[in-house]
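Q: Two folds, back to back.
A: First:
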Amino acid sequence: MRSALPLVSWLVLLATSAHAQIANGLRADIARAIRVDAAEAEHARGVPENPDNNDEERYPSRFASYSKGLRHDALGDVNTADYDALLNALLGANPAADLEALLLGGERKLVNPLAGFSYLPVGPDPHALALRPAPLFTSDEVSGELDELYWMSLVRDVPFQDYTSNPPTLITQALQRLNQLREYRGAREGGVVTGQSLFRAEVPGSAKGPFVSQFLLLDVPYGAQVIPQRNLTRVPGDDRVFRFDEWLRIQNGALPSQPAVHDPVRRYIRNGRDLAEWVHLDQPIQASLNAALLLVQLGDVDADPKSSPLVFDELNPYRNYRNQDAFATLGNGDGLDLVSRIVNPALRAQWFQKWLIHRRLRPEEYAGRVHNTVTGARTYPVPSELLNSPVLPLVLARNNTLNGGAGGTYLLNQAFPEGSPVHPAYASGHSTYIGAGVTMLKAFYKDIPIPNPVVPSEDGTALVPYTGPTLYAFDELDKLASNVGVGRLFAGVHWRTDHDHGVRLGELLALRTLQDLSRYYNEPFAGFQVRTFGGNTLTVNANTPVLPNVVSAVDGFTVVNAATGKELAKVYNGSVLDLSDLGTTNLAIAAWTYEGQVGSVRLQLDSNTFVDNQAPYSFATAVSVGTHVLTATPFSEANAQGLGGVPLTVRVTVQP
């Protein structure tokens, strides 16, 4: 047996070898050393803590946890013995057998809880990445999220173009309400939710240009075929699960009582219902692969589909090679493979979070608690902000109309006849795999203008030219990630936090996987250049940057006395800070993060930007009387460098 050599020694031997077929088994030793080195690098990062929000323990009747598919009582609370059996199966020594012994409430099966136990051959282990705990059942964040989902259910049939051009009353009402919420994390313009930013995700490119990404509209080149993106859509008004009896059947895991009603005309995505049906019927690799095929075509200058030099990443060495073209390494054969192959690791990492950590209830489940509370059937600790929302009377009226005038409910009606999938909410699988896929696309290809962009006609039967500022590929990829995640919100099956944290988990997993894979190339290059959802551009190679194990987030703000450090008040969106009540004008604004210690936080007050590298992350400032916009974004490295996390924006008013 040969003695073990450090990896660098094997690489030196490989570099000095004069033969492609290395003698005496040296090649096998080098290959093993590279794999071991990659595994050791991942092992050294360890497995982080993965805390949940403690709602499962806080509420022993389990009303605040996911239970769809199990048996429920007449008001929709889970049979606690069944829930405990599920919990014991997930946390016990023989989950496969114990899961098979469960008594379910209907025909639908639990979706793949064993995936959370699986391993991966490349990149981080599914258990090596973490999310912050899901928002509490009683939190302002949950209240704001369900408020938004109710509005989205009411405007599914409103064309996206009408959000900014002659918006109907419901859109105007939604904008007014979202700007009032104590916590709302959707995209904004100047700190305000506008028709242009409405229902979009807060990532750099999502709010630019039309609502729908070009990658969901343009014809997709598929070898010798061209695939128009005209889609199977649902007829207007086809909302489901609006009666309590049907809702209860669905919670028990029954199949829907009526099938979907599809439009006989295939259409381009023009509204929330179309987008919801797209993410209802898509396959996991579909959005990323279609985007990759479109980018490949844009860079094909020599009619050779195996090479697309115009769109190769700026650091790709083949951009400068005179005699060599990329294909199996650093070319389309490589990029298309990894864009597709990252999907399954993303799902495994998220299924660990869903089933083994958070077990967060679906929005449709929570809305059942709202209905019971408002009607007095059973009381739950639903936040008063939600119970007093102007959206609830509109929901009652809409569900009454759907029920033929026979009575309404406060349920979140669903775009899918079956409601949500039969697995927990946090976080979104769609968001995780599109976040990973988009990150791989940014690593292999570069940002270019989109030629001849389009928008759907009002009825979605045709595409018409887009006129407006230039649209760029990476912004449209950010928008693609937003569209895929937000489509699940329009359906009523996911929360905004499911998207915001899922898409960044996918990004982190893809970046960590690229670090692993970069060890296996023979081409000399600096690494993969990737623009992140946090806005920074990272150069990713085997050793740098130092990527985190945890998706970070800003949890909230407080105002403190800058001289004493004493906390004076928590700050929410819409907070009014009275300087006379606070007793000082010497204020500091602090942002609180998950985890408590991150690399840094960038704080922006109106046009002023500050960076703090040490918790508590704050800046002392003379805050003038008036209304201000405050945004904080966490980063994995000092000085707002590295990987960004989930930001938070609020508007506050200061009075003398």
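A: Second:
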Amino acid sequence: MQTIQRAILVISFIIAIFFKGNAQIQKYWISFKDKEISGYNYKDNLSAQTIINRTHFNIPLYQYSDIPVTHAFISTLNKMNVGIVATSKWLNAVTAYLDPQQVAQIEKLSFVRSVDIVTTYMVASSTKIEVTPELMHTAMKQMKAKSFTSNGIDGTNMKIGVIDAGFHKLQEDPATSYLVRDKKILAQRDFIDPTRTDLISKAATSSDDHGRMVVRMIAGYDTTLKAQYGMAVNASFYLARTENGDREYRGEEDMWIMALEWMDSIGVRLITTSLGYATKMDDPNDNYKQSEMDGKTARITKAAQIAVYDKGIFITVSAGNEGDTNWRIISAPADAEGVLSIGATRSATWDRISYSSIGPADLPYLKPNVSCFSPNGTSFSCPAIAGFVACLMNNDTTLTNLQLKDIVQKSAHMYPYGNNFIGYGIPQADRALVLSKDTAATFGNITELHISKKVFKYTFEKSITVQLVVFNKKNATIVINQDLVSVKKGKLKIKRPKDAARTTVVAETFSTIEIIWE
């Protein structure tokens, strides 16, 4: 059966390429009304590890979304010469390339809920290693990773899923070769081309080193240079390729969902992805609208929500790199409320780096959630924080995904004054370890002041001279602009900007002032 399914996928892939220029043949989601639930037994559909995970965290073992798509529905479509590309049990749907006549026929089927055109594309354990780093990545320094390393917290026994492009030359990269050598790559699957079983030694496209660099930021350690890039050096990995780096087309979205379901089926609790769906499509007519980054429109976002709230999975997602373009805002699935969306900061001042995408102004929740330094894309700040999360899981395996998300946010240097530029700021390992035991713990020098004058003056306890980051906001979270102000000999002076209702003043971790202009 698996051989037949793989053959269908390959044939469908070839069909997709053949008809790329034909406007009559397009890709659709075919959603079904219900499922065949009689005879379903979760023991036959969930792995032993998934059952253990769900039992441990009191997650229901029987879930409607786990029930496979009804075989009779797929059989009927096959008889209509419809080649199924991807199947999602969570969404109770399949994707396929259809012509208008097929669409009309399928819409009349009694078991079909809807046929929706796909309109958007993708933008782009074993031996324990002992680390004694002499060099440490800036993101790790920002997050005070030494609080983990000094306590022997390094992701041991954690299994991390990475959904990305290929992982070419993972075995040759000095910072990741040990993962292959020590058999820490537990499995790999190519959902674009299921005939490929090796995502490491051979590349399918020129972009297939992206996943390797992502893994480096989770667990990278160069034994020769004694340089550490990621925190979870003793984690193991499941790798999935869902992006065709040579094209920008919607096909990756359903492949991403299939990868997510695969990882859930084998008991993975932490998944990171540095992919996003928004704009810059091969066909501009296929771009998302900004209003659709609402946490409930994109199917990839819906799947991420199921993974978080129904399956207990922790997902970290890169916010996107459109902050200095007309688009500006995050992409899907970073808009999903349940995921931890990651932005990027500058190294010294800890404010938003220009390319990092911001959260939409009309979202009812904060995005991005947290951030850290990355000089070349949120693709690499995201896995850096995934390594942080893996260490927290390693430290306390009883914490649920939602408890962990809360701890990560509360540990960040700006909490509780988050904004849509960098979320709550940069997570701090020392704080996170305290919060793992006491979620009510508070940190730093936090001051909230109501100011009725047009000028705010403040004197610090110490006579310091330093630059502080300032976020001027039109409300509690939406930033108008960010700036740097100088404190000279302990004296700070800020004029109320036009249209600003609040201003957050922050100096890394030692002081945060929230000014509420009245």
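Q: And?
A: The first helix runs from residue 2 to 18.
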